[in-house]
Write a structure and sequence with these properties.
Layout: E1 3-6, H1 16-25, E2 31-36, H2 48-57, E3 62-67, H3 75-81, E4 83-89, H4 96-105, E5 109-114, E6 132-136, H5 151-164, E7 170-174, H6 182-188, E8 192-195, H7 197-200, H8 205-216
Parallel strand pairs: 1-8, 2-3, 3-4, 4-5, 5-6, 6-7, 7-8
Bound molecules: D-xylitol-5-phosphate (DX5) and zinc ion.
D-xylitol-5-phosphate (DX5) binds next to strand 2, strand 8 and helix 7.
Amino acid sequence: MKLIAPSILSADFARLGDEIKAVEAAGADWIHADVMDGHFVPNITIGPLIVEAVRRVTELPIDVHLMIENPDNYIAAFAEAGAAYISVQVETCIHLNRAVQLIKDCGSHPGVVLNPSTTLASLEWILDDVDYVLVMSVNPGFGGQAFIPGSLDKIKALRELIKNRGLSTLIEVDGGVNEKTIAEIASAGADVLVAGSAIFGSRDYQKTIQSFRGKISDY
Ligand code: DX5
Ligand code: ZN
């Protein structure tokens, strides 16, 4: 079954608790939280304090996407704040295996993230150790960007790789997921669809999520 993960980056932060409750009531599966440090990406967003606040208003798993340098220094804090899933960008980790083990030791599910230009070869010696791979389908840093079409071939190739190894690793896709792109992305092999602006920018979250489900139910 495919999962839908609204990214709170596009939520109204003045009403964050209500926004989270609204997407939960609308049928979201995970809550995606984008952590940016102004170094790895130009933008600065949220820290463990906000994740802990989100934790208090929802039962849904919180999926923390770390777009930060030196992620090892912050993994424990995000796990303690209640992140069920934590992913690190492979480009930021000299000791990727250590970061993944640290996420596990902290009791969260580990994931690794690939930028659009990062090759699948970087997964060779880490794929067996992670619960999910996040394929970035925009350059990280901002919501509301256009889906990079070449991501579809990458998702398909990753699906093959996972199948050939007999793994059950989830593929998450993040960036430019909307009414127009979601069917192709699901058909290419994505399991978890992150959507920020397409959900929080819509008038009726429930209608949007239901419409997404309708478009991906065949895959
Ligand atoms: C981008 C973030 C995404 C972002 C997606 O750097 O990782 O999670 O919120 O936004 P949309 O769905 O608007 O492309
Ligand atoms: Zn993200």
